[in-house]
Amino acid sequence: MSVQAQPRPLPARMRGIPRFLSAGPEVRKIGVGVLLILLVLFGQQFYGRVTAPGRLAPELRGAKGPSNVVVVLAFMPDRFHNERISEYGVFAGRDGALNRIRLRNVTPDSLWRLASVSWVARIEGMR
Amino acid sequence: MSATTAASARTGVPGQSMLAAAGRQLRGLKILLPFAALVALWWAIYASGDFSPQVLVSPLTVWQAFVHLVTYGVMAEYASTSLRMIGFAAMLSMVIGVPIGFAIGVNRYAAHALEGFLRFLQGISGIAWLPLAIIWFGFTHTTTLVIVIYTLIVPIIFNTMIGVRAIPESYMLALRSLGASRLRMVKDVYLPGALPSIVVGLRLGMGYGWRALIAAEMLVRKGGLGDLIFGARTFGQIDRIITGMIVIGCLYVIVDRLIVQPIENLTIARWGVLRK
Amino acid sequence: MSNATLAPPARRRRRGIDQLVWRLLPLTPFALLLAAWVIYWAIARPNAATLPSVQDVVAAMWELAVKGELAQHVLASLWRLLLGVALGVVTGVIGGFIVGLNRTISTFLSPLIVFFNAISGIVWLPLVIGWLGIGTALAVFLIWNTVFFIVFQNTVLGVQLVPQVYEEGVQALGGGRWETIRTVILPGALPYILTGLRSGLGFGWRALIAAELVGATTGLGQMIFGATEYHRSDIIIGGCLLIGTIAIAMDRWLLLPIEKRTIERWGLVFDARKEE
To answer: Among partner residues C107, C221, C274, which is closest to B4 by beta-carbon distance?
Structure first.
């Protein structure tokens, strides 16, 4: 690696990404900081969205109208989780265990959004 | 820590760049050492005494609580609420506060008149206005937002004003004598000249604002990290409280040291008249 | 907050009436606000809970003063502040000196201090309320916490920035360690310590009010939060104004004279904007 003088730091938006690494320690810090914050803000959402297809039971994929589902969690839900799940459909009680929640009238759009929630284990059709 | 960076800046001997790079990697890990020592001390204290879970928990329990809160989506949501709030409040405060600061700073009479008033407002911290905001806006996000904006905007206005006042008269006269329009003046003289001070104001404001945010969330209880730790108190979940505290600290350090402080250093390096 | 003074206009203006105007100028924002308040109230006649009239606020404050409650609250708050600040300054300065004199320790502890400064104050409330309950102990802890880390950081900075030359000078003249500390390092670090004190007092007052909002039975913070329940906006506004006034009074009549007397006496110059 050739010897270079410390490059003059310029604001990040004035440099392209490839030059980012040589743009000076301050700019790198800002990059790392922004990245971490974005991770906190969107990391879990992104992960959930990417793994969404795996959560829906086969019979529910491609649902055209409102469906009745059972939302299965891998843990015992807090009030927090019950509240969030209830936003996607009409709460209709448990399905045997506390971590199996019945929802009625879940629109296809809500179904997809529910599948994108990272802490939902899977969504099954209601029998 | 500043001493070591200053020292390494002073040497800058060429040919040592590889060594310096390796040193930097190690330095990154070295930062974790004191925290490891602290956790070890914590564990020792916990193990030596017979603490009820209401008083103190082990680091392991706290870690478990952290993992629990993260995997079950709780932490992400509460942390995001707080971050969005401070981010939004910071943007609004800059957009409103900087122009006001400019308008005040340009006129020396206005500046002198409002200096004491702004100090007074800063003395009544945003948190003190919480009760009134609760009466006006109820226990809502609006209340939190108003309080945090108040807390942020006063240092921003004050420091913008100071930044503008600190610009040497000669610069302004020189450009004006060359026939510069108002807009040109703002762009080429006022803005760069005041920028270092503005960013210092932003940094100060973020410090006050983050604390005010946590306090407001504790009272308003509509989400956010303050709500998380205060709510955990109701159930005596010390592990969650400590997790929340650590997350609060880490997030602030990330925003302050990895984002705002570098911006501050960059503006000072480029346009700075402040001596640091 | 910065102590930069805004210079009065050039000498040719500094005469009689103009000087009087200049001195009265800082009062104009308050006067304008008061006038706006009175006029708005006369025109719009808002609900007393939303915005009480000036007379309501004055009357409410007077009532509390006469009943002795106001004095009780103010004294409770000030007493907690005094305890917390005193503890914070003493521990901060002593700790700062011990750590500051040793480079290895200060570099090691630096990340920890930065982190704990990030969570200083109100963030500890949910945890500590379980240990100390509601009341003075809680408030004093939170203030100590806030003040300690700020004063500590600034002391370390001050100690480390004392030029080697002075230390060596004393040692060349045969002075021992203690001599060096007393005659060189202490005065040298003093400006930073005082900056830390000033900053700490500001943050500490805010932390106190925040702590009293939820964790006390007396004190100004409790007074204004308790009034929320009964929608007594007049007490809240009066309380807030009082909080601001005390903050300014402390800064102006307590700290500024201390700074002037010690720094002028030792002929030390420093940049007032160097707040951490």
So the answer is: C107
